[in-house]
Amino acid sequence: MTKVDIISGFLGAGKTTLIGKLLKEALQGEQVVLIENEFGEIGIDGGFLKDSGVEIREMNSGCICCSLVGDFGTSLKEVVDTYHPDRIIIEPSGVGKLSDVIKAVKDLHIEDEIRLNSASTVADASKVKMYMKNFGEFFNNQIEHAGTIILSRTQNISEDKLNTAVEMIRSLNADARVITTPWDDLEGATILAAMENVTNLELEMLAEQAEKTHQEYEHEHHHHDGECGCGHHHEDEEHEHEHHDHDGECCHGHHHEDEEHEHEHHHDGECGCGHHHDHEGHHHADEVFTSWGVETPNKYDRAELDEILKKLSETEEYGNILRSKGMLPANDGTWMYFDLVPQEYEIRDGKPDYTGRICVIGAQLKEQELKELFRV
User: Fold this and answer.
1) Could you tell me the pTM of the whole model?
2) Domain 2-195 has CATH 3.40.30.10
3) Which helix (H) or strand (E) holds 8?
4) Who's near 99: CB < 8 A, 6+ residues apart?
5) In this predicted model, what pLDDT tens digit does every residue of 307-336 receive, in sequence order?
6) Which residues sit opposite 98 in a β-bridge?
7) Are strands 356-363 and 290-296 parallel, antiparallel or unpaired?
């Protein structure tokens, strides 16, 4: 199965630079084919990328929206049939609409041969406001349909301007991951992980909490012969709440109260067996937890973060906090990773992440107070 990654971006945003970084730092060992669609007479990026050993298929017949119907589909099928690559990177024209490219890939109907792996947009952080205003039809489309927005040149603008750019992007696409860390500080593998959405803090934390709850449940309710109170054998069966939907998004400031976890939503007192267990106390009120998460380019110093975590771990001002973790840029250019459980937390040095990320799970979370605490 060939993965297809679409990397769009307005003219001059830095798509070619990004692709070169990914090829060098994240995709070595994979057979990668790049399909370009340049707007203009000649494909100027072909020579640069040939140095990386990548097969170039240039299509210079005009913008992507003009060449999708025939040339694009033919080229993509030809690449799959000829090379059977591990991955195809599609670099559309800077003035192409990302929605058109996504539709073109899906309309090929060769799902048994290719899989749309990611759709990302590179955007110059210093030009978001201008492009949104002057070229909204094309620029906004690329933002709206991307799973990840990769901001370039963030090191050249102030924190306030960066926050404004992120807010404008969020107004068009609240669900996308937004990479705000300067590329020179990031490993290509970190960028690729964000593009492929394998950096989901909330799912990681919910899995940990579910495993803990599952183990406690096993300890309290399962007999030594592997039978639970329902009289059924569950030795090899895993709790449903361990299998949270891995397509879900995390840490974008969304509330996940309505997402179902097996132990969370049996308000009618029923367990997976369909039997009533109210009197057995299988599901306690303090097991009903929700999550709050946010991504932020804000910088923090260690003393400030220490004070924040102290409040989170020692008080109930922000709800009943079960777990929190995150990675945040520090004012001195380093990165701080933190982990917190009730009455206990730690801060340690970590490598740069694609943006600052915070996630909290617990009961009766006070979201507004959490936002104020973390200045987001």
Assistant:
1) 0.71
2) no
3) strand 2-9
4) 141, 144, 145
5) 999 999 999 999 988 889 999 999 999 999
6) none
7) antiparallel
What distances in angstroms separate CA 62 from CA 12, 38, 66, 165, 246, one per listed residue?
Answer: 17, 7, 6, 30, 38
Return residue ranges of the chain for CATH 3.40.50.300: 2-195
Domain with CATH 3.30.1220.10 in the chain: 201-374
DSSP secondary structure, 110-126, as one string? -TTTEEEEEEEEEEEGG
> What band does 241 get if pLDDT is binned at 50, 70 and 90?
very low
CA distances 205 to 15, 25, 141, 209, 374, Å, are 33, 28, 33, 6, 19
The architecture of the domain spanning 201-374 is 2-Layer Sandwich (3.30)
Of 38-47, 67-76, 157-166, the range with the lowest mean pLDDT is: 38-47
* 3 state DSSP class of 320: strand
Q: Which of 178, 181, 160 lies closest to 169, judged by CA?
A: 178
Mean pLDDT across the chain: 78
User: What are 358's strand-pairing partners?
Assistant: 294, 326
Q: How far lies 334's CA from each of 150, 186, 296, 301, 330, in Å?
A: 20, 12, 15, 10, 5
* Both tokens assigned to 168: 């404008």
Residue 293, sorted as left (phi over 0), alpha (psi -120 to 50) or beta, turns out to be beta
Least confident interval from 18-32, 89-103, 257-271, 311-325: 257-271
Beta strands of 19-113 (E only): which ranges? 32-36, 55-58, 87-91
